[in-house]
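PT: before anyone asks, these are the final sequences, not the draft ones from last week. 702 residues across everything. Please model them as a single complex and drop the result in this thread when it's through.
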Amino acid sequence: MSVIEIKNLVKIYNGSAVQVTAVNGVDLTIEEGEFTAIVGPSGSGKTTLLNMIGGLDSPTSGTIVVDNTDLSTLNKKQLVDYRLHNIGFVFQAYNLIPVLTAKENVSFIMELQGTKKDILTQRTKNILENVGLGDRLNSRPNQLSGGQQQRVAVARALASKPKFVIADEPTANLDSKSTENLLDIMEELNRKENITFIFSTHDQRVVKKARRVIVLEDGKIVKDERRK
Amino acid sequence: MIISVSWKNVWRNKKRSLIVICAVLLGTIAGVFTSGLMKGWVQQRIDSVIYTEMSHLKIHHSDYLLNEEMKYTVPQPEKIEKYLETNPEVKAFSRRIKIMTMANTSRGNTGLKLNGINLEEEKAVSDVWKKIVPGGGTYLSKDTRNPIVISSKTAEQLRIKNYKINTEVIDSLARLDVPDPTIEKLKSIEDIRFKTNKLFKKELGKLLTKKEIKEYGKAIVDASVHYRLRNKIVFTFTDAHGKMVYQTFRVCGIFKTQNTMFDQMNAFVLRDDIASLAGFSDTDYHEIALITSDDIDIDELKTTIKADYPELSVHTWKDLAPDAAMMSEFMGIWYAMIMGIILFALAFGIINTMLMAILERVKELGMLMAIGMNKKRVFSMIMYETVFLTLVGAVAGMGIGALLIVITGHTGLDFSSVSEGLEAIGYSAIIFPEIDAGFFFLVTLLVVLTGILASIIPARKALKLNPVEAIRTE
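LR: through. Structure below.
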């Protein structure tokens, strides 16, 4: 079953002097449970593509349909809601709330969703245990290593029960051991719980683990490879 | 959750938050204390107006207040007296004869309004009897012949007040911790009588250093005052029939209220000592002053009496002392203005701090918006944060301000250095600040309002962020 269907997607940025075509006619379908890496050199349009899928940026033309909803039909307010209920985000720089503990960072998004307190507490604990941080529930981000912080970020992304998780260069700031650890966790979540992951990355370690690799160049898909 | 995040955000940059909180704290203390001081000041004036000078309501012949003529006594006094006696809203009333006189002693003279009073009635209405100065004798009593109570100010005008250093004065100054060298200097003028305050001060100026005068001058002057009690004063006035009459009274007591003007005008004698001489019968009075029970609407009582007795003029203290009434009415606006101005000034500091906090957190705000925090929540988060920032300082400030008021409310604040100016316009020189709960409610409301208003600019700044760009900021 396809989660995301993208047809003829174009994004043109109008700079003061030049027009930049960041995404140039992308057609793409992401199936449920895929573990996809979008790769390509800087400026190839990876992040722009992910931003548009994430409802953070709007396309110049073309359509993105997520679960039978055409994102172009949503207004700004509805897009915020769409992101809250459908997408988990993992950022390059972790982007946790520094004043909250690991537990609070994870449950914050569920509170935004209006999850009941008892469900929320249990789920937060389970998710953090799943990412191997069962013993760091009450640590603040500054008491955690980079790898641990990114695992909290993954936990946060999953907490909202999203249809898919978008991770923009999630390993860029991590050492190899943390990267491996993080990838193992994500892969396990993908296999066990059938969670759809879409990464943008430069990192060969991520590419190696991915079961589908999409290569972008100058805003176009030049290669789309599925592996077992 | 958003509230708890906001609260935690306040303490993210402790030093910066504490600086703003301290500013709010000091501002609130200043505002609360100033308001308390003003309220105490005005309340004392109002208490003095009601319980010393005016009473709640005054009843006269309808023409009396125009020219205060002797012939305008209260018409049909028995009727109104009976009404007042039976009205539960009236706590006490005092009937007075009022005569404009010229007072003469062998040394001086002055114009005075003689109040002929009935002792027990008057004590229930006006507290002048409690205002006898130290060394100033006693209030009126029926045991002496033709007693009179005059004010300290009048005593000075009639030159029956003088200044003298004697052994008693030296003893009392020693008890007040005036140092021995200063006392030694004063001994050189022992038993010399100075007729006026001015002469005495001039002499002190020659004897003592400026520092000694500054520190002990007032105590020395106060301790050295001597009144010539039992001194005769001759009063000249026209009686009810237009004939000139004379009467001699003996000073039995000296009073001093906080209103110099009142003091300068009024002297008190027993009604029976003057009524027949002035040509009045037992039932003739110029004025009935009354004190009502607590929580009575005196304007309503005034209207009732006026309706039943159209031949009388009835005035409340607000009519007779409009300045004090105005102060009392506008007190609430005063507080709000003082606090409003202080908080308005503080708002700029708060806005600045919050803008810095937003700029520091662009990336985080971008993330929050990206993961699905809507504008309303972002706005509330920043608004709560601003309100907390303001409220912490304000609550502490109110606490400290209230404490200061409670303490100074007991000890009083002495503004004696400017007392002559204050007392000349009827305000006490020693102020006892006071405050009521309603004021704190008002301040809290204003503080929250300031917080909300101050959060608008920073919150707008945050809402304008584009999440995609904000996340990428370093």
